[in-house]
Design goal:
Chain lengths: 285, 321
């Protein structure tokens, strides 16, 4: 393979990495030192476009991280580029600043591949840079019982399953909104039935979410619990996304758009959950 | 002098994809750490110094600035500032690169050494005879000392050249063991031994291997120790016993853990010390001649020193005062 930037002493490492990604991940016909995006000021040593619309990039270098890569990561996050960036380096005892650089790579979601005579080993997996730029959830603002689930949702989102990450947040929102329904009815915060109407007695913890929320919006006495109105209206608006597993994006453009949307959706769901918890505080759910 | 019309060179932004590297570029080593530093600098500050190119059909060929060009490719830059010059002759092409680097950042000596024979060939073709060292120095911008050192490197057998290449590919921050300086010092010293005591070296490559191994293991501690090896070979020069010198060198080339320091101590150390001492005494005698003719210059401090010297000499020579 011919490289224009890569110094000669790293060519063997790059070739071995290419073989490893072909054999382990089925990635063939690597693009060598080519542009991955017009706006990105960096060309990784190798890259492939996967069928899921991800760009798997490998930068071959002497050590696992550098200030230049830091800016590449930041640009990918800002531009929401669905890049999974790995660094492949020759595993030798004298890798400069190995510990500090590999820790930094991991923190930034950059994967690390060590290449030795014995073969290649993934030291850290790469995370999709379009997703790890999601605003972190400030868990201290939430009651303790929510914190571990929130951490799990966040980790799931960043690790490449954004739909699942969102879904975990929606689980919390659904659970709380159902409890609000049950509690407001038992506390007499529903309006009186009009002539010909009967107060619905169905259980809120069972059945589909949407009809239950529609019922709640219809029967809540807004004069008594005005504080819930804004949050519950927002809950109703997110219900359509509840079970949206989404089709896997087939092109890079679709993936960029999808990742940008889902990042916003995840952040909005975390905000909604916090607002709902705050609004429901007087009900002691 | 090189015949490049630099005044007619034009400064332009050239698409990086239309640039090719110069196959004559003597630089063979691009250290990753140094490239990385330049990459970061260009990322932050851009290309501050234009590269030099010449036009070749619809494309451009690098004269100077391969590392800057490579970094621009890596940073996905579309263009790079460049001075576009007329296409030089093959000789001017090479000489220009040599001169640029002798004035600015120095290449590794080995890099120069590899390309020097080509320069000599082209110059020979140009002037109709083999260039001498002075002419070569004038045209390349290298000093005669550097040219001589390059020649020593080029005379090395290929396996040793490969060792140097391997070493040069390591980051500069790492302590290089088998440096160009090591080989230059060793070769100079071996040449002296070959000239003075040819029978000591049975197989030059074997001797090289022994010395390299001793240096790697630390038995030979410093590259300048090889200067003492030359002194051993020149035992006759200080009237030392050449048979003892031969034996010491033989031990050095065959016995494990026997260092140059050991060989020097066991053979010519005393003779060289004596020679040094005699030289110093001669200088003192010349100084004393001066004081004999100008006694007014003898200060109290000098007088005290002379008396001390006189006492010592009287004691050594058995003529007590």
């Amino acid at each position: 393979m011919s490289y224009r930037y890569l110094p000669a002493q790293l060519h063997a490492t790059a070739d071995a990495t290419m073989d490893f990604f072909r054999d382990s991940f089925g990635l063939q016909n690597a693009r060598v030192e080519e542009e991955i995006n017009k706006k990105l000021g960096y060309r990784p040593t190798l890259h492939w476009l996967t069928r899921q619309g991800y760009l798997v990039c490998v930068d071959v270098r002497e050590s696992p991280f550098s200030p230049t890569l830091e800016s590449v990561v930041s640009d990918c996050m800002q531009q929401c580029l669905p890049v999974k960036l790995f660094v492949a380096f020759p595993g030798k005892p004298d890798v400069p600043d190995y510990k500090r650089n590999s820790d930094r790579a991991r923190e930034k979601g950059v994967g690390v591949v060590e290449v030795t005579d014995a073969g290649c080993a993934v030291v850290y997996e790469a995370l999709p840079l379009s997703l790890i730029g999601v605003r972190p959830i400030d868990k201290k603002l939430y009651p303790p019982k929510y914190r571990s689930d929130l951490a799990h949702a966040e980790a799931t989102f960043k690790s490449g399953s954004p739909e699942k990450g969102c879904s975990l947040l929606y689980d919390e929102i659904e659970d709380l909104s159902r409890k609000i329904g049950e509690k407001t009815r038992s506390k007499g915060l529903w309006r009186a039935p009009k002539p010909g109407e009967n107060l619905p007695m169905s259980q809120f913890n069972k059945g589909q979410w949407r009809p239950k929320m529609e019922l709640l919006m219809l029967w809540l006495d807004w004069r008594k619990c005005k504080y819930l109105k804004d949050s519950l209206q927002r809950v109703v608006s997110v219900i359509p996304h509840r079970n949206e597993s989404g089709h896997k994006p087939a092109t890079l453009e679709v993936r960029i758009r999808r990742d940008r949307e889902i990042k916003t959706r995840f952040e909005a769901a975390a905000d909604l959950l916090l607002d709902l918890i705050t609004a429901a505080r007087p009900l002691r759910v | 002098m090189t015949r490049i019309d630099a005044e007619n060179a034009t400064l332009r932004e050239i698409p990086v994809e239309r640039i090719d590297r110069n196959p004559e570029n003597p630089r063979i080593v691009f250290r990753p750490t140094e490239l990385e530093e330049l990459l970061e600098s260009i990322r932050v500050y851009g290309v501050q110094v234009p590269i030099s190119l010449y036009k070749e059909g619809t494309r451009f060929v690098l004269i100077d600035g391969e590392r800057r060009w490579r970094c621009c490719l890596k940073l996905n830059k579309k263009t790079i500032p460049a001075l576009v010059q007329d296409k030089p002759t093959p000789l001017d092409n090479l000489l220009l690169m040599f001169n640029i680097h002798s004035l600015r950042e120095q290449w590794d000596l080995f890099t120069v050494a590899v390309k020097l024979p080509r320069v000599i060939d082209l110059l020979e073709h140009d002037i109709g005879r083999r260039p001498n060292e002075r002419e070569l120095a004038a045209r390349t911008g290298l000093s005669r000392g550097v040219i001589r050192r390059c020649k020593l490197l080029m005379e090395l057998p290929d396996p040793y050249k490969d060792e140097i290449r391997k070493e040069l590919n390591k980051p500069k921050a790492q302590a290089h063991k088998l440096t160009e300086d090591f080989f230059i010092e060793m070769e100079r010293s071996l040449k002296t031994v070959e000239r003075a005591l040819p029978q000591v070296i049975d197989d030059k490559d074997r001797v090289r291997d022994v010395l390299i191994e001793k240096y790697r293991k630390g038995t030979i501690r410093n590259v300048t120790d090889f200067r003492d090896m030359s002194k051993i070979a020149r035992a006759e020069y200080v009237q030392a016993d050449t048979n003892v010198a031969k034996f010491a060198l033989d031990q050095l080339f065959n016995r494990n853990n026997y260092s140059i320091e050991d060989a020097y101590r066991d053979s010519v150390s005393e003779a060289y010390s004596e020679r040094t001492f005699l030289g110093q005494v001669t200088m003192v005698i010349e100084q004393l001649d001066f004081f004999t003719s100008s006694p007014d210059h003898v200060t109290d401090e000098i007088r005290r020193a002379m008396e001390k010297l006189y006492d010592k000499l009287a004691k050594i020579l058995g003529r007590e005062r």
